[in-house]
């Protein structure tokens, strides 16, 4: 056995907080491979997130009369391949919040672990209080920003919405720690394609049906013009009564423009 | 370094700096990316013709160089072209093709066709392999009907019922995709185009100022310059800006007459042809 690289749990790695590879020679083998290393080890590689692999595309959300509505498609792309077609990118957090994520799906799953743990500890206090969307947003913001400062970000853009004590809340946080609230939000391509529509057509007093129509308008534009979106969407709503994540469904698309049928009319050989 | 002998300039392109560029690239210098100089341009086919629209902001990096420039260029009386990308390139290429179209009209004795302009533009741009950074929305009405095309800097074209280009194209396209339908009337067409340009103006930092619209139908073209002015100067003094004589204190006055020192002598032969 020549100089071998072995990835082993040691106090060093635990303190650092990163997965780490150490490099040591055969003589040091016994001393190095204890649960707690008796040897100060030479750090060879530190593993951080550099690129996303399985990604979700845009999430759009907006406040409406009774609460907050959020929508996304159910696609998980692996680069330019549509690898997974039934990924739930919108989840509930506690009683008062829903969260939608775009970006690396595995990091979203990690975030859900953090949040489920947070809610669990909060429930264990059993003191009549429950964490609302503002608190969850703040917690997530701290996590995302601190990870970015260690050059090991959670590669996501998140949208959080919720209702607590009659107050509607909608906020966003992304992988570099930028966070803000607004009446309507989007991640990724949604910012370029959906926000302009929402900016001109959103109103404070939309009913649920009107809000769904407006969101479907945005989802259709995203379906036409975002290459990583698919025709399978999920809408989630949260009101003072509770959360509902509707089952996935498709939108009707229209491809029948006469100019699409015969583009070379009037000039043979052109396109 | 090989010593280059001084050749007399014969005109044409001087390739001296190409060697330097190759050396820089080899040493790891990254070419600066082509700047999309901030624009929203759109085109739309309606019942009787086409409507073209554009914003009026010209940018030089982060600075607004021209608050009210004209991005809808004349090609022929029945064909107009919106240009995004490098302003010099769009101006020059549309001027050039416009002249070529006029010469063609003299030769054929007929009204120019949109596909003629399209072919001239795309072959020129392809020839320059994308270095002429002009992204165009070409629209017009000829004997074969209304046509709308987009032309990309590398020379590819699309024939579409509605099109947007420029940095504000996504904002404008979101309006088109949700509002366009077949058989629009003239008023509906203009309204949707103006809305799309406004979406670009207000949601894209590279576009701004006013909305220009051009409506082309069979036999008639209307160039509606500054069709909408959604960004007026606010907070102007209602009294206006007049400066009464005596408002500025005059400290001293000295008047010096202009002395003519040089006598110009008229004469000599007129310039020969």
Automatic annotation (TrEMBL), chain A:
It comes from Carex littledalei. Non-catalytic component of the proteasome. InterPro entries: DUF4504 (IPR027850), Ntn_hydrolases_N (IPR029055), Proteasome_beta4 (IPR016295), Proteasome_bsu_CS (IPR016050), Proteasome_sua/b (IPR001353), Proteasome_suB-type (IPR023333). Signal peptide: none annotated. Pfam families: DUF4504, Proteasome. Keywords: Cytoplasm, Nucleus, Proteasome. The 26S proteasome consists of a 20S proteasome core and two 19S regulatory subunits. The 20S proteasome core is composed of 28 subunits that are arranged in four stacked rings, resulting in a barrel-shaped structure. The two end rings are each formed by seven alpha subunits, and the two central rings are each formed by seven beta subunits. The catalytic chamber with the active sites is on the inside of the barrel. Belongs to the peptidase T1B family. This is Proteasome subunit beta. GO terms for cellular component: cytoplasm; nucleus; proteasome core complex, beta-subunit complex. It is found in: Cytoplasm; Nucleus. The lineage of its organism: Eukaryota, Viridiplantae, Streptophyta, Embryophyta, Tracheophyta. It comes from the Eukaryota. GO terms for biological process: proteolysis involved in protein catabolic process.
UniProtKB/TrEMBL annotation, chain B:
Gene3D superfamilies: Glutamine Phosphoribosylpyrophosphate, subunit 1, domain 1. The keyword Disulfide bond does not apply. The active site is at 39 (nucleophile). It catalyses: Cleavage of peptide bonds with very broad specificity. One of its GO terms (molecular function) is threonine-type endopeptidase activity. GO terms for cellular component: cytoplasm; nucleus; proteasome core complex. SUPFAM superfamilies: N-terminal nucleophile aminohydrolases (Ntn hydrolases). Its main location: cytoplasm. It is found in: Cytoplasm; Nucleus. Keywords: Cytoplasm, Hydrolase, Nucleus, Protease, Proteasome, Threonine protease. The keyword Nucleus applies. Pfam families: Proteasome. GO terms for biological process: proteolysis involved in protein catabolic process. The 26S proteasome consists of a 20S proteasome core and two 19S regulatory subunits. The 20S proteasome core is composed of 28 subunits that are arranged in four stacked rings, resulting in a barrel-shaped structure. The two end rings are each formed by seven alpha subunits, and the two central rings are each formed by seven beta subunits. The catalytic chamber with the active sites is on the inside of the barrel. Component of the proteasome, a multicatalytic proteinase complex which is characterized by its ability to cleave peptides with Arg, Phe, Tyr, Leu, and Glu adjacent to the leaving group at neutral or slightly basic pH. The proteasome has an ATP-dependent proteolytic activity. The proteasome is a multicatalytic proteinase complex which is characterized by its ability to cleave peptides with Arg, Phe, Tyr, Leu, and Glu adjacent to the leaving group at neutral or slightly basic pH. The proteasome has an ATP-dependent proteolytic activity. Belongs to the peptidase T1B family. This is Proteasome subunit beta.
């Amino acid at each position: 056995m020549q100089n071998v690289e072995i990835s082993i749990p040691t106090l060093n790695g635990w303190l650092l907080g990163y997965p780490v590879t150490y490099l040591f020679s055969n003589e040091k083998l016994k001393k190095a491979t204890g649960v707690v290393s008796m040897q100060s080890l030479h750090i060879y590689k530190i593993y951080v997130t550099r690129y996303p692999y399985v990604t979700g595309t845009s999430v759009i959300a907006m406040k409406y009369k009774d609460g907050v509505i959020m929508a996304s498609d159910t696609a998980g792309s692996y680069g330019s391949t549509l690898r997974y077609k039934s990924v739930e990118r919108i989840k509930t957090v506690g009683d008062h919040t829903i969260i939608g994520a775009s970006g690396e799906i595995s990091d979203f799953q990690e975030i859900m672990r953090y949040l489920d743990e947070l809610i669990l500890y909060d429930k264990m206090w059993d003191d009549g209080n429950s964490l609302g969307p503002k608190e969850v947003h703040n917690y997530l913001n701290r996590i995302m920003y601190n990870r970015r400062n260690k050059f090991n970000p959670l590669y996501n853009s998140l949208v959080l919405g919720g209702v607590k004590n009659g107050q509607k809340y909608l906020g966003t946080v992304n992988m570099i720690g930028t966070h803000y609230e607004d009446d309507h939000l989007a991640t990724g391509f949604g910012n370029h394609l959906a926000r302009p529509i929402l900016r001109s057509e959103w109103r404070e007093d939309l009913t649920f049906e009107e809000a769904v129509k407006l969101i479907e308008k945005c989802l259709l534009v995203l379906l036409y013009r975002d290459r990583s979106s698919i025709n399978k969407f999920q809408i989630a709503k949260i009101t003072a009564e509770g959360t509902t994540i509707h089952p996935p469904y498709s939108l009707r698309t229209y491809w029948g423009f006469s100019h699409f049928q015969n583009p070379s009319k009037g000039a043979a050989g052109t396109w | 370094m090989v010593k280059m002998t001084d050749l007399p300039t014969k005109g044409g392109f001087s390739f001296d700096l190409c060697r330097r560029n190759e050396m820089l690239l080899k040493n790891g210098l990254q070419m600066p990316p082509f700047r999309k100089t901030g624009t929203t341009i759109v085109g739309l086919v309606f019942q009787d013709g086409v409507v073209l629209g554009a914003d009026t902001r010209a940018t030089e990096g982060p600075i607004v160089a021209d608050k009210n420039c004209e991005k809808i260029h004349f090609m022929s009386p029945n064909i107009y072209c919106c240009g995004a990308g490098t302003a010099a390139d769009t101006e020059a290429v549309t001027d050039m093709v416009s002249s070529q179209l006029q010469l063609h009209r003299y030769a054929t004795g007929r009204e120019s066709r949109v596909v003629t302009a399209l072919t001239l533009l795309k072959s020129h741009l392809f020839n320059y392999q994308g270095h002429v950074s002009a992204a165009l929305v070409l629209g017009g009405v000829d004997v074969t009907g209304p046509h709308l095309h987009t032309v990309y800097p590398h020379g590819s074209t699309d024939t579409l019922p509605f099109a947007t280009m420029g940095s504000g194209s996504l904002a404008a396209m979101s309006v088109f995709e949700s509002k366009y339908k077949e058989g629009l009337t003239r008023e509906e067409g203009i309204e949707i185009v103006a809305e799309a340009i406004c979406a670009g103006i207000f949601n894209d930092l590279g576009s701004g100022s006013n909305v220009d619209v051009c409506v082309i139908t069979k036999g008639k073209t209307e160039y509606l310059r500054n069709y909408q002015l959604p960004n007026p100067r606010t907070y102007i003094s209602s009294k206006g800006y007049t400066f009464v004589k005596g408002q500025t204190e005059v400290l001293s006055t000295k008047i010096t007459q202009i002395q003519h020192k040089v006598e110009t002598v008229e004469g000599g032969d007129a310039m020969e042809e």
